[in-house]
Please model this.
Amino acid sequence: MMPTRKYYNQNWLPSIFNDFFDNNWMEKANATAPAINVVESDKDYKVEVAVPGMTKEDFNIHLGDENELVISMEKKVENEDKENKKYLRREFSYTKFQQSLYLPDNVDKEKITANVANGVLTIELPKYSQEEKAKINRVIEIH
Model:
């Protein structure tokens, strides 16, 4: 799987000069991204995304037009002040992230599942079984 990231998180200082005239340069400089693991077994691939404090409602996962899995996350915290608190500094009120992973041809897209537990989003990408693969790769008879 080939990841494409929609943010800049490491070594942003050199690119800030290259992207200075881009209107979104400050947004790119402040962007963050969760850590991602991709694990392969004989039966499937698993994508694990570190997302502490996030719930399933914060995510949108879909298949893109170019055979890619698109994972996006957005978390907004409203500034409701129920306890009459005065924040002197508040840096965690908004988080947004998007990641695209190109899927291998052997992924059964109809059986992809996802769940969030213990601060980790896990997406299971089952591989086609040998029987299913044989059906997909069958030879077409000419009449």
